Amino acid sequence: MTTTPAPAPSAASGDPSVEAAQAALAGEHACVYGYGVLGAHLPDDAPAALAALATHRARRDELTALIAAAGAAPVAAEPGYALPSPVTDEASALALGVLLEERLGGLYADLAGAATTPELRELAVRGVVAVTVQALAWGGAPTAFPGLDGRV
C-alpha cells in the first residue's frame, strides 16, 4: 500500500506546512483503505479495528478542514492502493496494521516539524502519539523516537 505518498501540490504555493498536511492527509486516506482490508481478517479484533478506522477518519476530516482553511484544495483519496503484501489471515492483517501506523507516524512527525499554527502542530503531535499507540496494539515494537526512527 502506498502510505508514504509525495506531498500533493497545494493552492498555498509551496507552503511547507500545507504540503506536510497534504502528505499526512494522503497517509490517512491510505490508512482508511488499509483498515478496510485488514479489518476483514481480524474477527477477534473487529471492535479494535473499527475504533482505529473511526479515529483515522476523524483525523482525515480534521486535516481536510485545516487544509481547506489554509486556502488549499485537500488531496483526494486514490481509488485504490497497492498492498505491500497479500493480507490473507490474522497475522498478515496485524502486520499491515503495524506498517500503516508506523508509516503514518513519519508523516505526522514531518507535519509537527513543518506546522506553522498551533492547531496543526497539536494535530500532528496527537497523530504521532495515536499512531504509535495503535502500532503497539497491533504488535509493533516500541521505538525511542516514534515517527523518527531510521531517519536522519
Automatic annotation (TrEMBL):
It comes from the Bacteria. Transmembrane segments: none annotated. SUPFAM superfamilies: Ferritin-like. It holds the Pfam family DUF4439. Residues 20-149 form the DUF4439 domain. This is DUF4439 domain-containing protein. It comes from Jiangella alba.
